[in-house]
């Protein structure tokens, strides 16, 4: 497969049962981590502390966009409601194009079967716009993940 380049990477959000938006003016995107807690199983007979992995806690991630009050209105609305929605980050389809806009079924985005993508559920925890001297308006959007991050790989033959 080779190296995945960031150019033409896209972020899609299911904002309704069958409605998907593409996040425009995307500058960076990350994925929630899945750090496992630890369970102490040490007892008096142990010379060293003993641990096993516990439940994994889905963390947060941030995305950065060049702020557009119209294009990002739906994301700001999600921040206001706190709704848990489906997110899909797609690798580029080619050197010159991103993935086609996917569809959602019952609020779950159907990932493309010909490129790598990562999918997770979460809610917009924070939406913060920033303005700096001699720069564009930017917004940092924090997404609190819930559940696992799934990697979708191309189907055999693609």
Describe this structure in words.
With 158 residues, this protein is mostly beta strands. Helices cover 6% and strands 46% of the residues. It contains 1 helix and 11 strands. The protein has one helix at 73-81; strands at 10-14, 20-22, 26-28, 34-40, 51-58, 60-66, 85-90, 104-105, 108-109, 117-130, 138-152. It has a 7-stranded antiparallel β-sheet with strand order 2-1-7-10-11-6-3. The longest helix has 9 residues, at 73-81. The model has no long low-confidence stretch (mean pLDDT 94).
Concise structural overview:
The chain is mainly beta and 158 residues long. Helix content is 6%, strand content 46%. The protein has one helix and eleven strands, in the order ββββββαβββββ.
Topology:
Blueprint lengths: L9 E5 L5 E3 L3 E3 L5 E7 L10 E8 L1 E7 L6 H9 L3 E6 L13 E2 L2 E2 L7 E14 L7 E15 L6
Antiparallel strand pairs: 1-2, 1-7, 3-6, 4-5, 6-11, 7-10, 8-9, 10-11
Radius of gyration: 19 Å
SSE topology string:
EEEEEEHEEEEE
What best-fitting shape do the alpha-carbon axes yield? globular
Report the average pLDDT across residues.
94
Q: Report how far the terminal alpha carbons are from each other.
A: 11 Å
Kindly state the percentage of residues in helix.
Answer: under 10%
Number of helices: 1
Number of strands: 11
Walk across the major sheet and give the strand order: 2-1-7-10-11-6-3
Poorly predicted ranges: none
Report strand %: over 45%
Structural class: mainly beta
The largest pleated sheet is described as:
7 strands, antiparallel
């Amino acid at each position: 497969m080779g190296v995945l380049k960031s150019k033409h990477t896209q972020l899609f959000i299911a904002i309704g049962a069958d409605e998907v938006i593409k996040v425009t003016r995307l500058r960076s995107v990350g994925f929630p981590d899945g750090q496992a807690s630890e369970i102490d199983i040490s007892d008096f007979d142990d010379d060293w502390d003993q641990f096993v992995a516990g439940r994994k806690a889905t963390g947060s991630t941030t995305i950065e966009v060049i702020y557009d009050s119209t294009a990002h209105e739906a994301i700001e609305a999600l921040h206001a409601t706190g709704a848990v929605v489906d997110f899909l980050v797609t690798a580029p389809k080619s050197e010159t194009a991103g993935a086609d806009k996917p569809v959602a079924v019952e609020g779950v985005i159907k990932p493309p079967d010909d490129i790598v993508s990562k999918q997770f559920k979460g809610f917009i925890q924070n939406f913060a716009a920033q303005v700096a001297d001699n720069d564009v308006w930017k917004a940092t959007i924090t997404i609190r993940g819930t559940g696992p991050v799934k990697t979708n790989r191309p189907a055999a033959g693609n």
